[in-house]
TrEMBL record:
Keyword annotations from UniProtKB, A to Z: Two-component regulatory system
Protein name, UniProt field: LuxR-family transcriptional regulator
This protein's record includes keyword Lipid metabolism: no
Organism placement in taxonomy: Bacteria, Bacillati, Actinomycetota, Actinomycetes, Kitasatosporales
Pfam families: BTAD
Length: 884
């Protein structure tokens, strides 16, 4: 819903404020009834209440013309008797307010209290900022606001009722009390108020309010309360157990960004006997459990922290003691109390619905699991909510993985806590958002960072975040010791791991971009899956489904902690070596993915071979690992790994048209690869890297291409029966493609090898275009399609149609260009489709076409001047930063 015309908080059309008094009055009068509008006589009376103009109808007509000139000719339409606005009801705030009120009431009648709440809050948001002072009834805008003011009261009432019916008693108490004071005979409000007071203040307070209302009603009207109120009174008088919230503290400050999580956990509790909220330390599991406990539908709730329990066998006794059922309770010495802690716990909880919350179970998982199993098997109405960094492993358990805070919530939290720490602190929005992006969405990390504003600015905090464990310390005194520093939070989980899992975490921290199960198996062998399960169970790894398959990720906090432990153990060299071995094998496996064809589903199942689209997803998923791996390979002069990763990354960035990053990569890897003499098994890997880098540098965005050509021409020749081989032949011949005859190019175009002829014709299209022979360029582009028709490669098929479309656009053959580009689009599938948009701009969807683009006879085999800022031949330093 988009509000185009606002009249309540201010008078504005599409954000532009309207200040002319009579124009404001005209809009207010017409907004009074959008459907029928307003007659001319009513407009005259409302706009000129004191003195009529000489020609009233003409004056209205002039005012309407002014409105149309300022707001748009179609904003006001004429009617048989006057004028009306052309907006829909949901485009004008005064009418949308009525729609929200009606929707809230309808949804409440249907039992959709969440929908009723949403509609009421949307309506109240429209009223926000509307002046509260007494209105001048001669002002049409003020009169309209006065007319709509009762609707605001209706929405406030609807919101209060919805909050109460959703079980959000603490939030509903104040609005319901205010509504009952304003309308003391509104028994629907009183029913919900009694129920809310029974929960928040106790049944006796609710009964006292009922009795006071009953007496007043009898004395003033001689009647009794309605059936609904009497039913609530009977419920309270039946002697139901009072609300018990043992060990559940009130919130010290608002809990931000967790409403959906609270609702999700409550839904799980209504369907499952045991619910376990899991997640890494510092994520706010305890705060969430407190919030769920306060809003629980069970009248009896006990909250028991287990962080101080270190032995599994002590769990039941600790819980019994917290509930007053331990050895020190009344009756224990006299022999009337059971020595079994489980029986004692059940005796305190009673036979009715109850909720037991066990907080911080991860260090006593087995003891907590045994207790939960015994309790839920002995009491049909008991629910157990646990918080832990690991699942309990019970069939009765529903696990809720608590997500990290979103960026907006992190920014809001940091802003609140920073202003609490230093009220006058400057909080530049961009700097705050940038800082929060590096805090993993952990509320604890955000709060610890916010505290540092007492001595540092936000940019200074961000700069010091490289040593986050030294920076993020010194938490509040009213939080547990294990939450006073970020280091203590991670160390708590680290100490729960066995040595094999710790060693795995140290090694896996070398992967900055997450990793797949296959990568872990490459590093650890057949034990990898078992180790991954252990780490994921302790919430030290997060698991997510991606287009490239299941991937594992560490929070940056966990990764930095593990990396520091790796350095302390002297394992950096070994870990980087394993990382490079994986990266080399990955690069070799995917070095030519861009040159492949898309297999049919049946052949893919038979061969297990991926097509270029699926391969691109895998490469994209690993990009953040491959870049640092290449940096390590160059530092170690590891030629095979550098060649393989150069080929993979160059292919990825060429299909994404990321030419500055691509040419910077080619510039930085050119010198080391030109001195690399590949072993036989790496020759084709090195050829693919040289082809892609040579093609990218021929684009003209970077340094000289000589080193890449030297590398390419030094490799053993390969037959042009593959796209890599054909492109290599064409690129190697570029120095001999000289005007005016271009004899070498002509011979390549006449080749009987379809791949060789197709790539050469692509080059020729640019040569002939530069020579102003467009007809010849078009003929070469059409021949690309002809000679490459038998070749099953989506990028090659795209290449010919894209080039034809580009040439037709340049010669103003729009209809033909549309047809070719549409054919190009049909041949693009999945991620390859993104390359079609660059065709009309001269960018290429394939490496072969990329190689052809810069061919300019005036410079022989040379380069065009760089046209992208910062990518000139002298910008090597900038380029190095770009790809890294």
């Amino acid at each position: 819903m988009t509000i185009d015309l606002t009249l309540l908080p201010r008078v504005a059309h599409r954000g532009q404020e309207i200040t002319a008094p009579r124009l404001r009055g005209l809009l207010a009068l017409l907004a009074g009834d959008l459907r029928t509008g307003c007659g001319t006589e009513r407009l005259v009376a409302g706009l000129w209440p004191d003195e009529l103009p000489e020609r009233p109808a003409k004056a209205v007509q002039v005012l309407v013309s002014r409105a149309r000139a300022q707001l748009g000719a179609d904003v006001i339409a004429g009617t048989p008797t006057g004028y009306r606005l052309t907006f829909a009801e949901d485009q004008v705030d005064s009418s949308a307010l009525l729609l929200h009120a009606a929707a809230s009431a309808d949804r409440a009648r249907a039992g959709d209290h969440a929908g009723s709440l949403a509609a009421a809050e949307a309506g109240l948001a429209l009223w926000e900022g509307t002046p509260d002072e007494a209105y001048d009834t001669d002002d049409p805008v003020a009169a309209l606001r006065t007319e709509r003011a009762p609707v605001r009261g209706t929405l406030i009432r609807a919101r209060a009722l919805a909050l109460a019916r959703l079980g959000r008693h603490a939030e509903a108490a104040g609005p319901l009390t205010a509504a009952a004071s304003e309308h003391p005979r509104d028994e629907e409000v009183l029913v919900e108020l009694l129920r809310v007071e029974a929960v928040t203040a106790g049944p006796s307070a609710a009964l006292m309010r009922y009795e006071a209302y009953r007496r007043d009603l009898r004395e003033t009207l001689g009647t009794d309360p309605g059936a609904g109120l009497k039913a609530v009174q009977r419920e309270l008088l039946r002697g139901e157990a009072p609300v018990v919230r043992h060990g559940v503290p009130h919130e010290p400050n608002p809990l931000l960004g967790r409403d959906e999580d609270i609702a999700a956990v409550r839904r799980l509790l209504s369907a499952s006997r045991a619910v376990n909220v899991v997640g890494p330390g510092g994520l706010g599991k305890t705060r969430l459990a407190h919030a769920v406990s306060r809003r629980a539908e069970q009248r009896v709730v006990y909250f028991v922290p287990l962080a101080g329990v270190t032995a599994d066998e002590d769990v039941a006794a600790e819980v019994a003691s917290a509930l007053g059922a331990g050895e020190g309770r009344a009756g224990a010495l006299s022999g009337h109390a059971s020595a079994d802690p489980v029986s004692g716990i059940l005796g305190v909880l009673g036979s009715g619905p109850a909720l037991l919350v066990l907080d911080n179970c991860e260090q006593v998982i087995r003891g907590a699991a045994d207790l939960v199993q015994a309790l839920v098997s002995s009491s049909k109405d008991l629910r157990v909510l646990a918080t832990s960094r690991a699942p309990l492993g019970l069939t009765s358990e529903a696990v809720y993985a608590l997500p990290e805070l979103g960026l907006d919530t992190s920014v809001e939290l940091l802003t609140q806590r920073a202003r609490a720490a230093r009220p006058g602190v400057e909080l530049p929005p961009d700097a705050v958002a940038g800082l929060c992006r590096h805090l993993d969405g952990l509320p604890l990390a955000v709060e610890l960072a916010a505290v540092r504003v007492r001595a540092l600015s936000v940019p200074e905090i961000a700069r010091r975040l490289g040593d986050r464990f030294a920076l993020l310390r010194g938490g509040a005194r009213d939080v547990p010791e294990r939450h006073r520093t970020l280091h203590a939070v991670v160390d708590w989980s680290w100490n729960l791991l066995d040595e094999d899992a710790r060693a795995a975490l140290r090694t896996l921290s070398v992967f900055p971009g997450g990793f797949s199960a296959e990568a872990a198996e490459h590093v650890f062998g057949e034990d990898a899956l078992f180790l991954l399960e252990q780490l994921a169970d302790q919430s030290l790894l997060t698991v997510s489904d991606t287009p490239a398959g299941v991937r594992f990720r560490m929070l940056e906090t966990v990764r930095e902690f593990s990396a520091s432990r790796r350095a302390e153990a002297g394992e950096d060299e070994e870990a980087v070596g394993r990382f490079l071995a994986w990266a080399r094998d990955f690069g070799v496996a995917y070095h030519d993915w861009i040159f492949g064809s898309e297999p049919s589903p049946s052949s893919r199942l038979r061969s297990g071979r991926e097509g270029p689209i699926a391969a691109r997803e895998r490469v994209r998923a690993e990009q953040d690992n491959l870049v640092p791996a290449l940096r390590h390979a160059l530092a170690r002069t590891d030629g095979p790994t550098a060649a393989a990763l150069t080929a993979v990354l160059a292919a990825l960035w060429s299909t994404g048209s990321d030419y500055p990053r691509l040419t910077a990569l080619a510039a930085d890897t050119g010198p080391p690869l030109s001195h690399y003499h590949p072993e036989p098994e790496y020759v084709e890997v090195a050829r693919a890297a040289a082809v892609l880098c040579t093609a990218s540098l021929f684009m003209g965005y970077g340094p000289h291409v000589v080193r890449q050509l030297v590398t390419l021409r030094r490799l053993p020749p390969a037959p042009p029966d593959t796209l890599v081989g054909a492109t290599a032949v064409v690129l190697s011949a570029v120095p001999e493609m000289l005007p005016p005859d271009y004899e070498v190019l002509r011979k390549l175009c006449d080749s009987e090898q379809p791949l060789l002829a197709g790539v050469a014709e692509c080059v020729a299209t640019y040569v002939w275009e530069y020579e102003h022979d467009i007809d010849r360029a078009l003929a070469s582009a059409r021949r690309i399609i002809t000679v490459l028709a038998p070749v099953d490669n989506p990028f090659l098929q795209v290449m010919g149609y894209a080039r034809l479309g580009e040439l037709c656009l340049k010669t103003e053959q729009g209809e033909a260009a549309y047809g070719y580009l549409k054919a190009c689009s049909r041949r693009c599938r999945g991620s390859a489709a993104s390359t079609t948009s660059s065709a009309s701009a001269g960018a290429s969807p394939s490496p072969a076409c990329s190689a052809a683009i810069p061919m300019r006879p005036s410079t022989g085999c040379g380069r065009r001047r760089a046209t992208t800022p910062g990518t000139s031949p002298g910008s090597r330093r900038w380029g190095r930063r770009r790809w890294r």
